Amino acid sequence: MEKILVVNLGGQYAHLIARRIREIGAYAEIASYDSVLEVAKSDEVKAIVLSGGPASVYEPNSPDLPVDLLYLGKPVLGICFGHQWIAKKLGGVVERGKGEYGKTMVRILSSDPLFEGWEAEEVVWMSHSDYVKEVPSGFQVLAVSENGYVAAMRSGHIYGVQFHPEVRHTAKGVRLLENFVRKVAGIKSVWVPEEQVGKIVEEIKARVKEGIVVVGVSGGVDSTVTAVLLHMALGSRVKAVFIDHGLFREGEPEKAVQLLRSIGIDVLYIDARERFLKKLDGVSDCEEKRRIVGETFAEVFTEVVAGIPNAKYLAQGTLYPDVIESGAVKGADRIKSHHNVGGIPSWFSLELIEPLRDFYKDEVRRIAKSLGLPDEVVYRHPFPGPGLAVRIIGPFTLEKLEIVRRATKIVEEELDRAGLLRKVWQAFATVGEDKWVGVKGDRRAEGYIVTVRVVESEDAMTADWAKIPHDVLDKIASRIASEIPHVTMVTYAITSKPPSTIEPC
Ligand SMILES: Nc1ncnc2c1ncn2[C@@H]1O[C@H](COP(=O)(O)OP(=O)(O)OP(=O)(O)O)[C@@H](O)[C@H]1O
Ligand SMILES: O=c1[nH]c(=O)c2[nH+]cn([C@@H]3O[C@H](COP(=O)(O)O)[C@@H](O)[C@H]3O)c2[nH]1
Ligand SMILES: NC(=O)CC[C@H](N)C(=O)O
Ligand SMILES: [Mg+2]
């Protein structure tokens, strides 16, 4: 398979670059910068993209790559930090400038395959303070910004752009990436996630020659697709297990198990509620909550597998972002450890099977659709593995758990009634420790503050708070404060991601 390597030089946007390339229908993978040269030499790798990153190339400990990467004869596109790194490495000059942030005009100076379909002037999105003062010898300046900075440069098959084509605000960014992939790198193959099903099934068959695979299912689209693929490959040698950790939404375990059974997946329901809740009692730290859930999942899975004769593997619906966000790829910062990746304890010894580890959520939804799964599964909102535990800020208590559970139900009911639930990426409630003085029935009543969070997103890498109509918010707020005891204030979270994240914890 022809692939493009996206080298992560520390930017959260490396992900977005890979996603955009896949949207174009070419296959991209993220690589860490310290081991990229060997990987890049493989025949499958047809082109290399160097991401942005927070460091400055003239700082002593900034990420560095072997210069040989530029002499493999494969097209290279440096973006922002990547662009500056190419300039510096090949003898140009990079300095601190005035900085350009947000939408900026650039002028294209000469026609080039990279800019096919671009007008002479276009809007791009910038986020840099360093700039390329002098391009290396042999390089041509292809574009300049309205502030006179080098916006794009080229020498042979090596390109650098100061702006971010992967960000939606760059008007023709996708077109530029497409030009790089198809025109500059000449990649012809078209990568369609649905068409990978046959290959995934064959890979599972080749790996699991004998024995039983236990697959963890949560009712979400990722684990449901995982279970269906395993079932296609192994038939009755798959055993699905649903662990009830007591951190689900109201009625969710029953619904999930019923739905899985209705599509032909035989599920074993394990009630582990007491065990999880006991361990979480009083725990405040977010990462500690995640660690406890991960560890307890690992314990329960180990016991379940031990109890099933001839069970040899544990399968999970791990996705690519879980792997990246858990900091499992060098160069990427650990944002949150997903229980199924970063949260796995060191003693855990079951062999893992993760057929969707290279896929993004929207790709998994496409696969789910092509497998004929019901819309209820395909379009189900993501729900974090550690469940409502990550929606409780500060000490974990059963009281707060109950508040979050009831408030989330109200949020979902009201959005559904307004026809908005399906249209948003996620919608839920959270609760913290802060109190607000209220008055209920003429009495002073100090109560909790519930924060409602509704976001729109394409892939959870970035998200916007949803502009829900005031009357719907009003209904949600008044129901939460009147129906749930000890709640005296409801707030609506209006910070997008970044700089915030979707879940509070
Ligand atoms: N309660 C659970 N019981 C069994 N396995 C679970 C449970 N929760 C999570 N897992 C396993 O861990 C993996 C990652 O959890 P995650 O929360 O992403 O679930 P998911 O199925 O991907 O659902 P979603 O679509 O909501 O993301 C799942 O794919 C599944 O294999
Ligand atoms: O399977 C999961 N296990 C987790 O530990 C986890 N934490 C966050 N999420 C979901 O991931 C997306 C991004 O979340 P954040 O913006 O809060 O990081 C959002 O869709 C979150 O709901 C998780 N999913
Ligand atoms: N987004 C980036 O890659 C920034 C690169 C570099 N740190 C700058 O500020 O210019
Ligand atoms: Mg998931």
Automatic annotation (TrEMBL):
UniProt-recorded Gene Ontology molecular function terms: ATP binding; GMP synthase activity
InterPro entries: Class_I_gatase-like (IPR029062), GATASE (IPR017926), GMP_synth_C (IPR001674), GMP_synth_GATase (IPR004739), GMP_synthase (IPR022955), GMPS_ATP_PPase_dom (IPR025777), NAD/GMP_synthase (IPR022310), Rossmann-like_a/b/a_fold (IPR014729)
Residues involved in ATP binding: S218, G219, G220, V221, D222, S223, T224
Reaction catalysis annotation: XMP + L-glutamine + ATP + H2O = GMP + L-glutamate + AMP + diphosphate + 2 H(+)
Enzyme Commission identifier(s): 6.3.5.2
Pathway: Purine metabolism; GMP biosynthesis; GMP from XMP (L-Gln route): step 1/1
Entry's Gene Ontology cellular component terms: cytosol
Active site: C80 (nucleophile), H164, E166
Signal peptide region: none
PANTHER family, per the entry: GMP SYNTHASE [GLUTAMINE-HYDROLYZING] (PTHR11922:SF2), GMP SYNTHASE-RELATED (PTHR11922)
Protein name (Swiss-Prot/TrEMBL): GMP synthase [glutamine-hydrolyzing]
Name of the gene encoding the protein in the UniProt record: guaA
